[in-house]
Amino acid sequence: MKNTVVIKSFQNGISVFLNEELPFEELLQEVAFKFRESSHFFKDARMALSLEGRRLTEEEELQVIDTICENSDLHIVCLVDKDKEANQSFLKAIQELPYPKKEDENEGHFYRGTLQNGEILETESSIVVLGDVHPGSAIISTRDIVILGGLFGKAYAGGNGNEGHFIVALEMSPERLQIGDFKYKNSKPRKWPIKPKIQPQIAYVRDGKVIMEPITKELLSNLSL
Length: 225
Prior knowledge:
single chain; alpha/beta
């Protein structure tokens, strides 16, 4: 069957058109073939991924992502709708962030959904959250945390005590934030909920303190994480 899987690029990412009639297992084989063929073109780039043309369950989406990663050196930052301006602005800012190499045993994980009051998400890998972290909820990682949404609850990166990690969110208004053994003190807590702003921020440790700043190319070029 011709053009069962079509790969196209867009700013900061790639879109993959998936045939809606092909059986899913056969579709995964086509995805594997296409990305093996094009691995020399994408190399080890960090990109967002948009899946189009076929309605997929969350489990199927993860299977497609796993198939892409297993058959290429691509680092998939997150799964997005390529037409959403908010996602594009955020992705543009995080393209330069330091992510683990593919051979690292602690590759990043994805969590698609919103953490509600009382929920705790804990992982030994870096993690990308596709949603909000609401007040009363918490996300804990031994490595880095990237939130494609708002951080209004608690976040703890570097859970192994290592301060050389970071937390990134599209909207930063945490109840509590900690990196390694260092806690962030918010002198001007903001009320929640608030209207999201397209201003990604990064929290990291500098001189024994957790610093929170808007992401800029200048900042990223001077970071030593």
